[in-house]
Amino acid sequence: MARKKKEECKSIPGWLVSFGDLMSLLLTFFILLYSMSTISLEKFYQSIRGITEAFGGRTLTHEENIIKGKKIELNLPKMYPKIKKKKAIQKKLNEIKEMLERAGLKAEVVSHGSSIRLRLFSDRIFPPGSDMPYKDVIPYIMTFCEKMKETSLPVIIEGHTDNIPIHTKRFKNNWELSAARAVQILRLFIKCGYNPNALAAKGRAEYDPIAPNDTKEGRAKNRRIEFIVNLSV
Q: CA quadruple 96, 100, 101, 103: dihedral positive or negative?
C-alpha cells in the first residue's frame, strides 16, 4: 500500500483569500478615483491665500503667478502674534524691574509658559506684619501701574509670606496677611486707573515658596508680591 505524501506547507485559510481579494478591489477603486480626479490650481491658490491671510500675511494679488506655476514670495509680518506679544511684555516688565531696582526695590522677572511674573520682594514694601505699604514706595507702585496700563492685559496680584506663623489683632495667620497685601496693591492699581475687570488678588501665604524657609535669606525671598501677566487670553 502506497504511503500518503505528507504536506510540506499548511494550506492558506479560506478567509485570507477573500481578504486579499477585498484589499485588491479597494486599491483598484482608489486608483480609479484618483485617475478620474483633476487638481484645480485655482482652488489650490484660494486655499493658500486663505491660510496666508489668516496668519497675518499680505494679500496676494498676482493670482496668475500661482496658476502658471511661478513662485510667489510670502510676507508674514504678523506671524506668531503670541510670541511677539510675549517678547514685548517681557521687555516692558524688565524696564519696570530696572526702574524699581533703581529705587531700591528688589525685583525679578520670570517667564512661565504663557505667563510672565514680576516678583517684588516685600521687605522694602511693607512693614513687618502689616499690609499697608511704606509711603515712599507708593509712587513707584503707581508708576508701575501706569506703565502696565498701556498693555491692557489681565494682571493677577499674589501675596506670599514665609513659614513663620503670625497672629496679631488684625491677622490671625499668613493667609490673611498675604491676601490683605495683595488687595492693598490691587487698590493702588485701581486708584491709578487700571481696569478693575482685568485685576485679581490672591493670597498664597507660605504655600508657594521659591526658596527654602530654613535660612534668613530664603525666608526673605519668599516674602514677596507677584504680578502675573497671562498672555493666553
A: positive
Indicate if 75 and 113 belong to the same structural domain. no
Q: How far apart are CA 105 and CA 41, in angstroms?
A: 62
Taking the complete model, does pTM exceed 0.85, yes or no? no
Say how many CA atoms lie within 13 Å of 61 toward its Cβ. Answer: 1
Q: Among residues of the chain, what percentage have pLDDT more than 90?
A: 54
Rg of the chain (C-alpha set)? 33
Each residue's pLDDT tens digit, 129-165 = 999 999 999 999 999 999 999 888 899 999 999 999 9
Bridge-partner residues for 155, per DSSP?
199, 229
Whole-angstrom distance, CA of residue 90 vs CA of residue 174: 30
**Cα dihedral across residues 56, 57, 58, 64: positive or negative:** negative
Biggest distance spanned by C-alpha atoms of the chain? 118
H or E segment to which residue 147 belongs = helix 138-149
Same domain, 88 and 59: no
Does residue 69 share a domain with residue 161? no
User: 211 with 218: CB under 8 angstroms?
Assistant: yes
